[in-house]
Amino acid sequence: MTEHEKAILITGASSGIGEATARRLAADGHRVFLGARRTDRLEELSQEISNDGGTAAFRRLDVTSAEDMRSFVAAGHAEFGRVDVLVNNAGVMPLSPLEALRVDEWDRMLDVNVRGVLHGIAAALPVMRAQGAGHFVNVASTGAYEVVPTAAVYCATKFAVRAISEGLRQESAGGIRVSVVSPGVTESELADSITDPTARDAMTAYRAVALPAAAVADTIAFAVSRPPEVEVNELVVRPAART
Ligand code: NDP
């Protein structure tokens, strides 16, 4: 294997940043294994990557299930014989003021954004340990560094992604690398999950200036492409223009 032929598993690859990352890493010569719930999209994307000369496969994945995540990682491992990188990218962002008490949406954010990442670590770490090397790229957010109104729970989940990633980094010397990529506003379907009218209105203005998803994919590709002795821990990427 060269630095350009890694076996890379990507969660949330059916749209936005995950989809762009799959395209980019495949174009860089890596083999990509794609997970999300919308398999029609994964099938289309895998086909597109194959048509362009790349290597891609997919499997339905719900990151909120530890069992499902284990099956996903096992299937990726069976497909490519290795798991060099797991990009924990799947996430949801149904923003609302805390006062609105949308407890179900809080739970969904915790389940996907926090438990999903933990399930990814639980599934892939033993495989990486057995290989003697591996790399987690966890997608957080600028919301992992600051809290804004309507985003308390979402930001809490992203603070958690940073905390978990830093803990994993400290505890896993010897071949296991951990990177956190934190995008600012990026073009994707993420804001579609907002049901609260106050949050939706606030987001329309906030999201007026956005990075293309390919720019975040480029940042992830940078972290992935460092030589084995280099561990990029945190990258924050924002649109240069201000809203
Ligand atoms: P999208 O909504 O376009 O993509 C989210 C992805 O997550 C989809 O592929 C979706 O697939 C997947 N997903 C959601 N729930 C689950 C689940 N239970 N199991 C498996 N996959 C799931 O948004 P983005 O591309 O923007 O989001 C990607 C990551 O980037 C998220 O972690 C988000 O928090 C983060 N981010 C995004 C920013 C932005 O402005 N866009 C800014 C900062 C961070 P499916 O529905 O098919 O399962």
From TrEMBL:
SUPFAM superfamilies in the cross-refs: NAD(P)-binding Rossmann-fold domains
Pfam (any one): adh_short
Keyword Oxidoreductase: yes
Keywords: Oxidoreductase
Ketoreductase domain boundaries: 6-188
Domain of life according to the entry: Bacteria
InterPro entries hit by this protein: KR_dom, NAD(P)-bd_dom_sf, Sc_DH/Rdtase_CS, SDR_fam
Record-stated family: Belongs to the short-chain dehydrogenases/reductases (SDR) family.
PANTHER family membership: DEHYDROGENASE/REDUCTASE SDR FAMILY MEMBER 11, DEHYDROGENASE_REDUCTASE SDR FAMILY MEMBER 11
Name assigned to this protein: SDR family oxidoreductase
